[in-house]
Amino acid sequence: MRGKFAKVRLAKTMDEIDWNNNFLKRAPRFIQNWYIDKYMPMVIEEVSIYGALGYEIILSRIDEEFILNFAEEAKYLGVRAMFSEEEIPLPRGFFVPDGVVVKVFLLDCIIDKILRAVKIEPSKLSLIIIEGEEPFTKAVVELLYPRLNHLGIILESGGEQSYSGLAYEIFNDCGLNISFGERGSYLLKEADIIINLSENEKGYESFYKKNACYIELSSASSKINDIKLKRSDILTINKFNVEYEGEILPIEQFELFMYLELAAFYNFVSGRNVRNNIWQIKNWIEASNIKLRNMNF
User: Fold this and answer.
1) What is the pTM assigned to this prediction?
2) Residue 285 is inside which H or E element, if any?
């Protein structure tokens, strides 16, 4: 296990605050406020996700000084990752799951659902990847290419030469030629599925063909809203739940579990030995019989 997690929320009422004694609990509000300002109390309770151990931490304030104090307490407790279902400014130095990375390893499941929904023959599927960070882009290519006959990469920051070695290996392995293009490329206009890895706020939605499917794998969630607004004909996917061992969790919490419990995933997120770890993660996903629930077509 790679440490513990913290589920963070703000106290809903004064009754949830840890006053330490009944006098403070019954004291006038100005005394309670003085105590909160001086001692910054928080409630810490043990919880678990899929057996991964952690804490629910209830904060009495969320100003900068309190968050810094909370960060120190979290480190003391052995917390390595944290999340909140509220708008709380979580401190730096902890892994905060957003579901983006784990979705890379669920792409096979996502694509299978898309193919069934839009009735495309797998052999005819045309898929493009909009380039993000190079290691991330290469990982997606390696995971997907064995099932594809038509694969393209839209280059944003790197050049085609950055992928020449990987493209050569893939061609030697199965004869697949990866196509490369930039903004305005025919690849964008022919793709059945678009996987976006780019953090660039400027998207390509005006180029996509009618009824294409768009999968968001970046943290630039505003792109999904733009596409829904400008291209209502396009299927968009960025949120869903995961079922594992009979329990259903949001994708972000499943990613948190994998970060804490699966060494290969922790190493992948940390940028260690990326290429070797992707296959260990993929094999674990397949062996675990993961199912996707509540996908937002």
Assistant:
1) 0.86
2) helix 274-287
